[in-house]
Amino acid sequence: MFEYFPGNYVWNLGVVATLNSGGLIDEVDRACRPIRDLAAQGSDVGTKEFMASWAAVAESLAEQAAAEEAAGRKRSAGQKYLRATNYLAQAERMQSAKAPDRNAFYQRCLDLQQKAFDLLDPATTRVAVPFEGALLPAYFKKAATDSPAPTVVMWNGLDSTKEHMYASGFAHELAERGIHTLLVDCPGSGEALRMHGLTSRVETEHWATACVDYLLSRDDVAADRIGLVGWSLGGYYAPRAAAFEKRLALCVAWGANHDWGAVQKRRLEREGENPVPHYWDHVLWVWGETELDTFIKKVEAVNLDGIVEHISVPFLIAHGENDRQIPLAYARRSYEQAVNAPKRELRIFTAQEGGAEHIGLDHLSHVSVYIADWIAREFRA
User: Fold this and answer.
1) Which domains does the chain have, with CATH numbers?
2) Strand 134-141 with 124-131, pairing
3) Number of H-type helices and E-type strands within the chain
4) How does pLDDT run across 13-42, given as a tens digit for each residue?
5) Three-state SS for 150?
6) N or C terminus of the chain: which is more exposed, having fewer CB within 10 Å?
7) How far apart, in whole angstroms, are the C-alpha atoms of residue 97 and residue 57?
8) Which of 138, 150, 322, 324 is nearest to 223 (CA)?
9) Within its chain, how far is the Cα of 95 from the centroid?
10) Cα dist. 45→4, 8, 37 in Å?
11) Which secondary structure element, helix H or strand E, spans residue 152, and what is its range?
12) Nearest 5°: CA angle at 327, between 325 and 331?
């Protein structure tokens, strides 16, 4: 994996995620160069300065985009708004849950993202999924077809957002294959957490039911071809949901988070890497807990033992052999236990080919294209 900040895995992960989601190396370098010395002090120190430096680059781009837009150069403006969104989203992800200006930065991401859609991608629209008297914010990426089409619900994980899922290009790959995508901020993530206070839970099938109900209300969705993809912690969320929401036609665990409760105990022992700075504050925020002991007890149930056996649709597990957050053994366990899936596949991405790090962030397009091809093939079947 490309390591701009030697020895600082968490910051490097943010850089790599940005570069492999449409960021330009010159702009990322300008954001990172002023904070290189801070990176040597660990992942938690300097995240406020990280935000300021990256935001400066993003706002410079937004200024340029506004000038391009005023001059009628809509595509150029949209591209700049899109990159500005990407930089702000990745920098906001690095902030403490207690940072007082965090939501303001995230609102700026939402505003810039909408400008990018308006100018560059009107096929993607903002929607909302009704959920238990509240709403799950989402984007719907429509494929270029007039007939009801297969649709994938995409869920993020512990710290990503629907903006990063969009920037990854995965929904564009699906659209090129005639497949719509619903990119959802689940409870505990993105806008659902930040703006609506919806926290995570063990029973993710509740969110799946809401997403399927919403899609079935649309006349452009093929009712019998709705799939579910989850990356990172979504590698628990999605298989759990597919085990119990039987209207789903396929499932992908993009990173096999088979026993996330055990991962937390490993992190208490400082085994493995954390995905974000200020880690324990972040997970307590996501799960709506205030005490670490209560949280650790609660997430013992975030485990797919006895669950994946109930998956009865095609099931793909995609995992990097050098994932420093989630052990490769968990991918094998999910595969071995999914005995009732009519088709199951374990795809391990190697360091030699790329995509070997967590959810393939070191070569994201390689992994996302493989998954998109697998989904298209299964929908055709």
Assistant:
1) 7-122 (1.20.1440), 123-381 (3.40.50.1820)
2) antiparallel
3) 16, 8
4) 999 999 999 999 999 999 999 999 999 999
5) strand
6) C
7) 23
8) 150
9) 17
10) 17, 11, 11
11) strand 149-155
12) 120
